[in-house]
Write a structure and sequence with these properties.
By secondary structure, this protein is of the alpha+beta class. It is 34% helix and 26% strand. The protein is built from five helices and seven strands, in the order αβαβαββββαβα. Strands 6-5-4-3-7 form a five-stranded antiparallel sheet, sandwiched between helices. The protein has a two-stranded parallel sheet with strand order 1-2. The longest helix has 15 residues.
């Protein structure tokens, strides 16, 4: 199901959010995790109230853009001992406020919340530690989310982020 271009959806999401904390409380109560199929738009996540980490991050990105809060998205993929990608993937949003970095997370099970760090490096170290503690993989690659489009399958999404 495709509801339209994420860039032209401002009239389709009727809830107004005023802060990351308000958005997090809304998502925690209303947006449930679902396995990834095709990249959903912010509108789809909002109206179906479900989405993978990649989908939920599209919704978060849309709202943070509306709030005009400095933020970015990170894509993660596990690597095996040969350092070849092949494990789990994850996408998250972080924002910057008062020279601090905040990991905004709704979709990753026991790691839901807004977590504060002194630097992007500290944030990545913590996320890497958490991800590898749940895995048989040894390496995590981080990449900025870029060139992604609603409707992409997982391989297309991964390829876009890793280019």
């Amino acid at each position: 199901m495709y509801f339209g271009n994420i860039l032209n959806e401002s009239n389709n999401i009727d809830k107004e959010f005023t802060s990351p904390e308000e958005l997090f409380e809304y998502m925690k109560s209303n947006i449930k995790y679902k396995n990834f199929d095709k990249l959903m738009s912010a509108y789809e996540v909002y109206h179906t109230k479900k989405g993978s980490c990649h989908d939920q991050c599209e919704f978060e990105n849309y709202i943070f853009n509306k709030l005009k809060i400095s933020h970015d998205r990170l894509f993660l993929i596990e690597h095996n001992n040969d350092n070849n990608p092949g494990g789990r993937t994850h996408t998250l949003l972080y924002f910057i406020k008062n020279n601090k970095y905040y990991w905004f997370e709704n979709s990753w099970g026991g790691n839901k919340g807004i977590f504060e760090y002194d630097s992007l490096s500290d944030m990545k170290k913590d996320i890497k530690s958490k991800m590898l503690s749940e895995s048989n993989y040894k390496f995590i690659e981080f990449a900025k989310v870029k060139n992604v489009k609603v409707g992409m399958n997982l391989q297309e999404y991964v390829d876009a982020c890793l280019k």
